[in-house]
Amino acid sequence: MIDIWYKILEVLPFEWAQEGQMIFMKNALLAVILLTPLFALLGTMIVNNNMAFFSDALGHGAFTGVAIGGLMGFIQPVGSAVVFSLLFAFLIALIKHRSSYSSDTIIGVFSSTAVALGIFLSTIGGKSFAKLNSYLVGDILSITPGEIGFLFILLMVVLAFWLLFFNRLLLVSINPSLAGSRGISTFWYEVLFSCAVAVAVTVSMSWIGLLVINSFLVLPAASARNVSRNQRQYHFWAVIFSLFSGIVGLILSYYIETASGSTIILVSSGIFFITFALRRKFA
Amino acid sequence: MENRHHISRRAASGCGLCCTKIEHFGVTIGNTPILTDVNLHIHCGELTAIIGPNGAGKSTLIKAILGEISHTGTISYVQANGGPSHTPVMGYVPQSLKLDTTSPTSVLDLFLACRSHLPAWLIHSRKQVNSVRERLSRVKAEHLIDRRLGALSGGELQRVLLALALDPMPDLLLLDEPVSGIDQNGLELFYETVSELRRTYDLSIILVSHDLDMVKNYADRMVLLNKTVLSVGTPDEVLQSESFYKVFSLEWQKQWRSKGGEG
């Protein structure tokens, strides 16, 4: 199946796109095309709900999960990381719901605990931390066709989730009481959304990297807000901006030989500042 | 379907036969009792205003009725035709929408999110859009359909939320201090719209308000609340009651009288 993708790319005028060349680049490009819209969709709601700090913390929770998985001897600790970050997301939502602390404080507490625990567990017995570096920076170029297939399934699941639950999530984000008067349980929808973000972040962590993953969520949505007046435009522009910066950033990183994740984000931030300057024209 | 619902209710009532009964409502938060033994009968076609000092538990009562916070006691809706009583369908206009003014959510998005199965960012069917426009026209706000929520004035937003609360038509409409952040004209327009809707759709309305001047002109009944129900009756009855004098400081009454309210 992946061969069809390689064939399609041969029409491009790039040397790496030619037959038999740079397979990793072609894989990465396909991965970016699947990953960026997925993150852009989830990101629209993260920005609506002022959850940028929260999604950042989820990455930290996932990191601890990886460390625990490593300790328990899994070669692929993603499974344990997903379980742990789901638990982590649920706990944050629960404590936020049950107490009157600001969510900033609660997330701060959880986030730092998670990172400390992750580093602590992975260095027990004087082990080196270096093997976890790949989770911090991430490497999209290392993605395999099998993993791309998995990403495709993930994208479909997120799309289905977005079709089914978006309206109710939007109401909860606009006003919890209003949502409540229409029989929507604010708490469970917050949990549901947190869990969706937790899974997406955790699964993609090894390709995008903990340090920059949050930008994939927040930047396209933040830029789209500058030019949108309704939810349809908001979604449209978030997806377009994320795809554009993903594709352009990846190709640029090939030619100027830089880390792909950060190049993508720099393109993405460029879009943010341009749209920010133009925002009054769209207001 | 929905229309039939109105008509049957209108034909059968209009005499306050259908009614929402709130019985023995109590709310305790932590160890502090906020409300104790609140009993109210809200009749169709009547605007019942709830007044009381700050901290009287007015907003708590609304939240308890909405089921947002747990409470003791029961709430039931008794139908005019003697049909089985049930939990009332509620419409709610929140105190104020704390909106992120940059949020890209249009009035249409808000309605579609409430009524449509398709997500608001996908296709909008022409039928749905027309129906939203019709709902907005009930509160004279059809021209606002494509506006961003953040770009609406306080009065405009309040009318949009009112239209939203009437879709679908509720058994009980709850208005939580809909007067804050609205100028005098917007305020009068809002109250007039509410009164008109009450007559047209034979609605039961509970209104929590601080603005005694305004409320006294539009309310059919008034409830003085301070932890429990202290006085119920017509606005004049309540405003002249012993409890009212006790609850509100003299200062406040003077202010109210000097603005033209007659004792």
Description:
The complex is a heterodimer of chains A (283) and B (263). With 283 residues, chain A is an all-alpha fold. Chain A has a single domain (2-282), classed as ABC transporter involved in vitamin B12 uptake, BtuC. Helices cover 79% and strands 0% of the residues of chain A. Chain A has helices spanning 2-9, 23-48, 52-71, 78-98, 103-122, 133-137, 145-174, 176-181, 186-208, 213-227, 231-256, 260-282. In chain A, helix 1 (2-9) packs across helix 2, helix 7 packs antiparallel against helix 9 (186-208) and helix 10 (213-227) crosses helix 11. Chain B is of the alpha/beta class and 263 residues long. Helices cover 37% and strands 23% of the residues of chain B. Chain B is built from ten helices and nine strands. In chain B, the strands form two sheets. A six-stranded mixed β-sheet of chain B has the order 5-6-7-3-8-9, with helices on both faces. In chain B, a hairpin with a 2-residue loop joins strand 1 (19-29) and strand 2. In chain B, helix 5 (154-165) runs parallel beside helix 6. Classes of the chains: A mainly alpha (283), B alpha/beta (263). Chains A and B meet through helix 7, helix 8 and helix 11 of A and strand 5, helix 3 and helix 5 of B.
**Major sheet size, sense and barrel closure of chain B:** 6 strands, mixed
Highest-level CATH class of chain A? Mainly Alpha
Within CATH, the superfamily of chain A carries the name ABC transporter involved in vitamin B12 uptake, BtuC
- Counting copies of identical and different chains, the oligomeric state is heterodimer
**CATH 2nd-level architecture of chain A:** Orthogonal Bundle
Output the radius of gyration of chain B: 19 Å
Q: Based on DSSP secondary structure assignment, what is the total number of beta strands of chain B?
A: 9
The figure for the number of domains of chain A is 1
Note the gap between the termini of chain B.
47 Å
Query: Would you tell me the structural class of the helices and strands of chain B?
Result: alpha/beta
Unreliable sequence segments of chain A: none
Kindly report the spatial arrangement of strands forming the biggest sheet of chain B.
5-6-7-3-8-9
Order of helix and strand elements from N to C terminus of chain B: HEEEHEEHHHEHEHEEHHH
Report the helical percentage of chain B: 25-40%
Helix and strand sequence of chain A: HHHHHHHHHHHH
Q: Remind me, CATH topology of chain A?
A: ABC transporter involved in vitamin B12 uptake, BtuC
Number of contiguous helices of chain B:
10
What's the mean pLDDT score of chain A? 88
Shape of chain B from CA axes?
globular
Shape of chain A: globular
Q: In which range does the helix fraction of chain A lie?
A: over 70%
